[in-house]
Amino acid sequence: MFQADDDMKREENYKGIDDARSERQNASRNSGGVGEGSGKQAIEELRHEVLSPLENDIAKLRDPVVLAALMHTAATERENTNRLLKTLIEKLDMKFTEVEDKINALEAAQKAAQKPTAAPRGDEVLLPSVDEGILKFVREKRHVSAEQVRRRFGYKGRNAASARLSRMYDLGLLEKKQVGRAVLYCVR
Length: 188
What we know:
Elements: H1 2-31, H2 38-61, H3 64-114, H4 129-141, H5 146-153, H6 158-170, E1 174-179, E2 182-187
């Protein structure tokens, strides 16, 4: 007898679980929860959320006024970019010029350090008569420029006078001083 009662209780328990499970499935279908139809509906809603704004944007791009506004914006941005690049290039050119000037000054200082400062005391330097005349002119005037030597000695251009003065500077007979743009020579 006890055994029959236990069997009946087991059958009721099994039926109860199955019945509860089917009731839950029916309730979720009716309430819009997770079920067979809800996945397709969610996909359609997501597609609508994503595609609607894109379709609106594509429709706007067909409007010539919108296209003109986009082209104007792009042209304006390009002009601004070109202006910025031009400014950067100008600044770089100025910096390169400064660097080149510093390099030239260092090279000139290095060359000046390598040149002999004075003619050897024991050796007499023999000069052409024109150079002796220029040396005498420098002693009289104390300071002369290549232009003054050109006028005094009748050279056609300053290059010849400048070359003569530079040669005497290299020999250590004259000193060179920069005064503004002019270079003045004087006797050592």
